Amino acid sequence: MENPFESGQIKNYLALYGGVVVIMILFFIATTLFNEEQEVDTKIFTTADVKTQVSHNVTQENNTTSRFKLLDKAY
Are 37 and 46 in contact (CB under 8 A)? Predict the structure, then answer.
């Protein structure tokens, strides 16, 4: 294998490296120019009292019988 510095092939390697860098810069410029900023709508959540709904669901869960028994001690 020949030394690329002595055979003059180093120009090809530098040209390849320069071409890759130029392509990366062009893609960066293209993405910044054509990137449209979109506005994000803020979501508004209701602050209604949901405690009544939760307690209603809990009472229904207690009335149903389960065929599985839970362990007395959690490991």
Answer: no
Nearest Cα to 17, choosing from 6, 25, 8, 7?
25
Outline where DSSP puts E strands in the chain. none
Residue appearing with tokens 């149903």: 64
Residue given tokens 């071409």 in the structure block = 19
Please tell me the distance from the alpha carbon of residue 25 to that of residue 32, in angstroms, as a whole number.
Answer: 11
The pLDDT tens digits of the residues spanning 22-49 come to: 999 999 999 988 888 788 888 888 877 6
Instruction: Kindly compute the dihedral angle of the four CA atoms of residues 38, 44, 50, 53, in this order, to the nearest 10 degrees.
Output: -50
Q: Please provide the average confidence, as pLDDT, over all residues in the chain.
A: 79
CA distances from 27 to 16, 35, 37 (A): 17, 12, 18
